[in-house]
């Protein structure tokens, strides 16, 4: 299988803490993969390494077979990698539609209003397309972030806690948009999410990080049944995610 994104043996230390220690992860085009694990497992650090915000102490990152470990976040973004953050980062004083058009112009020097309108529609945002993004409630603002990240057809999409603050209905819409991006445009999606039920439902593969290493990975059912995963994470999470779903 051809992989769009390959992460090989990545290690990051913060003083005496090994935030990541020999982590491997590969993403194929059109795949939706979940990255889960307890607080402090290294998920955010992993996203920082993949998106280029943090240079790893060991290992490498490849995009379409090219080593990009030393490339800047901007270079990666220009070559089709997009990331959303745990904290919202919208242009609050631009309209929802302009948030998407700005993203398109930045990459290609030209807006694609048709693509933007289609995404706004798919994300249930058409009625607020002229509203200031900063005025939206959290769930809808997260949908704008997703639409903006997808506005110029990325090949790799990194979503950090995309469902946090969303209602059950919004999560359902989010899942269908993410599935559509993967299936229709072959985008490879990696998402960090604490809502395990949501991850298990949406993702075809799940990777579990614990203390900076990959504890388990595989199909959702296999990961859910893994004794080590239950002990390290799901035992404490089960009730929480059931309550959210
Ligand atoms: N800038 C930093 N300086 C020192 N230690 C850090 C730094 N960033 C992260 N760490 C440590 O690295 C480890 C991994 O942290 P990270 O934030 O990547 O985990 P996480 O899985 O994203 O956690 P959460 O689910 O709480 O967001 C933790 O032990 C954390 O305390």
UniProtKB/TrEMBL annotation:
TM ranges: none
One Pfam family cited in the UniProt record for this chain: BCA_ABC_TP_C
Matches recorded under SMART domains: AAA (SM00382)
GO cellular component: plasma membrane
Superkingdom of the organism of origin: Bacteria
Keywords: ATP-binding, Nucleotide-binding, Transport
Molecular function terms from GO: ATP binding; ATP hydrolysis activity
Domain ABC transporter residue range list: 5-236
Record-linked PANTHER family: CONSERVED COMPONENT OF ABC TRANSPORTER FOR NATURAL AMINO ACIDS-RELATED
Protein name: ABC transporter ATP-binding protein
Organism: Streptomyces tabacisoli
